[in-house]
Amino acid sequence: MLRYITKRVFAMFLTLLIIATITFFLMKLLPGSPFNNQEKLTESQRYALNEKYGLNDPVPVQYINYLGKLAQGDLGYTFQFDGRTVNSMIANGMGPSATVGFEALVFGTLVGLILGIAAALKHNSFIDYGAMVMAVFGIAIPSFVFAGLLQYYVGVKLGWLPVAFWNGPEYHIMPAFSLSVGVIATVARFMRTEMLEILGTDYILMARSKGISKQAVIIKHCVRNSMIPIITILGPMAIGLITGSLVIENIFAIPGIGEQFVKSINLNDYPVIMGTTLFYSFLIIVIILVVDILYGIIDPRIRVAGGKS
Amino acid sequence: MSMSERKLTPDLFRPANLDTGKGEEITKPSLSFWQDAFRRLKKNKAAMLGLFAIVFIIVFSLIAPSLSKYGMDDQELMRANLPPKIPGLEKIGFLGVDGVDIRGVDQYEMKNVPAEDKFWFGTDPLGRDQWVRVWKGTQISLYIAFLAATIDLIVGVAYGGISAFYGGRVDDAMQRVVEVLVGIPNLVVIILFIIILDPGILSITLALVITGWIGMSRIVRAQILSLKNREFVLASKTLGSTNGRLITKHLLPNTLGAIIVTSTFTIPGAIFFEAFLSFIGLGIQPPTASLGALIADGFRSLRIYPHLAIYPASIMCILMISFNLLGDGLRDALDPKMRK
Q1: Transmembrane region positions (chain A) (predicted)?
Q2: ipTM surpassing 0.85
Q3: What is the CATH number of domain A89-302?
Q4: What residue spans define the domains of chain A?
Q5: Contacts A144 to B, Cβ<8 Å
Q6: How much is the pLDDT for A146?
């Protein structure tokens, strides 16, 4: 197990190094420098600015410096505001982004679990079909389409909830809900399949024949065992949440990382794009690593077998 | 009652015609795997509905733009932001296709649009016919999705196949590369690629393919690894089959089911990512538009001109749901493990 973890952590740093290298050289490949188009600058001012940001050094030196700074967690400066670092921008956006993501994850998992369990217990019934139709819709409909429609009908037409911005608890409901739709659908489908499989196993029959009540068997044996593999879909789900948050934050004007990221793409603010990209990669890679390790600890049967795709 | 009272006499019975050959006779025509799979697919109503919707949308996206006399980028500011008006259906008020906007003003009258001009999906802020734009956009979205799925398929099958078939050191080396690539979040790669390559149909497709083939290659590799050691492959090898024959006659046909199912799920994924890119401003650039770009544009004026977003969004939702339903149906039909 320890060998496996060491190997994975090593692979993680290798991946991060590759991503950092790609982002750095992409930044160098892009034409122009941040100070070229400002004609007001004199030659010496431009030289001083380039010197300040280390842009006069040869590219390999810049690369080493960049990696050195990165190792200390320094992502550089943004072009949008004078003297602000990418780190501080990410730190500012972290709060709202993490809040919406967490709310969506908790709400989505709970509702998904309930739907999936209900569908499996009432297999081939109205509840089952209803839950699975909902799940297909939830997986198929992009979250931004759902968010837009929700905003239009609930926010504008009915006026029940604030249309956008981030000023209080009632502002969380629509974004968190639109973000959680995919989670609900994925968890519900997965839970249903797992439950059905476990309901048909011999040890459930055994537990029932020992005289344990149906409720106790379902809660203590079925649900518990079905929930173990749910951990495997946490990784893809986290990626889905991050992808979704980019547009959801934009639609609902939430001052999070995703909103800043999209804004900086439109403004060609390369340090922010690269910094946020690295941050997202780091987040996703760490989540996948933690999920894989957790899974190996909880269910030793699957250990090191390469995992599912 | 009367049955039990009736006397059963021996002359009511006759010996059956005993024919030993009958037991060996096959009454049903034997079905090949594909016929069997297709029969199962046909039974699945949801999947057939999805298939029908996909075919309908593809055919419609090809012929619909020619039903209007305007092209995709014919601007005319005099007729900007017209609500939809469909001849025949305009009398039915609640459908909202009578040319009246949300304030209750008949925009067609107000803007003096000639009576023969009826925009079925309305017009956009530049006065372009939304009907043409929506269906052309569907074409472009589908084109990107199919192209991405095809390239994914070719690269993925080749990579996974070679890796599994030759095994040993080749497999080791090829899988190390995949391990690193899998770790890189595809969202990140796609965004980075679009930033260096200018956004366009080809660069979007390329960006989708760069990470997209890995899923396919892993599935093909797993399938071929398990098939490679089966007896029928060994038998064929013993009879002197060449590698080429083994691959084309035994390994690939048996992997085809998994390949088809994976491809069916790649397409909605590609449609989603393309729409997502358009939504954050990295997608198709104007005047061309994809479904995602149209939805993104439409959302900007959702409060005043809901028709701009509603139509492309509905078509996109129908497409995504249909592909998912078809994929589920195909998986149930082709995956022997799921057979009941």
Answers
A1: 9-27, 104-121, 133-153, 173-191, 230-258, 278-298
A2: no
A3: 1.10.3720.10
A4: 89-302
A5: 275-276, 279, 295, 299
A6: 86
